[in-house]
Amino acid sequence: MEPLQIAEKIKQAFPGEVAEITSFRDQVSAHLKKDRLFDICRMLKEDPELDFDYLVDVCGVDYLDKKTPRFEAVYHLYSMTRRHFIRLRVQVPEEDPQVRSVVPIWQGANWHERECYDMLGIRFEGHPDLRRVLLPEDWEGHPLRKDYPVEGFTGEEDWHGYTEVVELSKKLKEFEWGN
């Protein structure tokens, strides 16, 4: 089945939930309203004709001052058996940056959603363990947001765990290879 046909099938099964279907360089995106995302994903996985058994990635986009709503959660899906691909794009408002977790459908979404939360601050409702995965738990802010300070992290005055990390790195230096 061709990606445009898949997008049209989503549109038929969920009237009013597909805001737009776009194609760029033979990659099709279905732009969805966020309320039925979970149901759409479940249909894409369970429908034997579609069989999207592999969630390739979940990532976020920040459209600060370019588009409203500000954020977007992007899902890349692939069917190993049918060999087709589709991208789902879900608008996420800045006031309530939250979308339902798809971990119950694809267990592999666990880490992807955590990374998206960690870096952009998009929360995934119903996620089994939504906490930071790349940055320390006490880190403030979300570094991939376009309004995150450009100078970034400058030392102990910005993050109280700085001294602990520096000391730990000195202790672990003896385990480095090379040199």
Describe the structure in your own words:
The chain has 179 residues and is of the alpha/beta class. It starts with a helix and ends in a 7-residue tail after the last helix. A hairpin with an 8-residue loop joins β3 (54-62) and β4 (71-79). It has helices spanning 3-13, 37-46, 109-120, 162-172; strands at residues 18-24, 27-32, 54-62, 71-79, 84-92, 98-100, 123-125. Helices cover 25% and strands 26% of the residues. The mean pLDDT is 92. The protein has a single domain, classed as 2-Layer Sandwich (Beta Polymerase, domain 2). It is built from four helices and seven strands.
- Give the oligomer, counting copies of the same chain as homo and different chains as hetero: single chain
Category by helix and strand content: alpha/beta
Helix percentage range: 10-25%
Which sequence of SSEs, written as H and E, runs from N to C? HEEHEEEEHEH
Can you count the helices?
A: 4
In whole angstroms, the N-to-C terminal distance is 54 Å
Spatial shape: elongated
Task: Please identify which CATH superfamily we are dealing with.
Answer: NADH:ubiquinone oxidoreductase Nqo5 subunit
**Domain unit count:** 1
According to CATH, what is the topology? Answer: Beta Polymerase, domain 2
**The first-level CATH class name:** Alpha Beta
Question: Ranges with pLDDT <50 over ≥5 residues?
Answer: none
Major sheet: arrangement of strands: 1-2-5-4-3
Radius of gyration: 19 Å
Strand fraction equals: 25-35%
Which architecture name does CATH use?
2-Layer Sandwich
Largest sheet: 5 strands, mixed
What is the residue-averaged pLDDT? Answer: 92
The beta-strand count equals 7
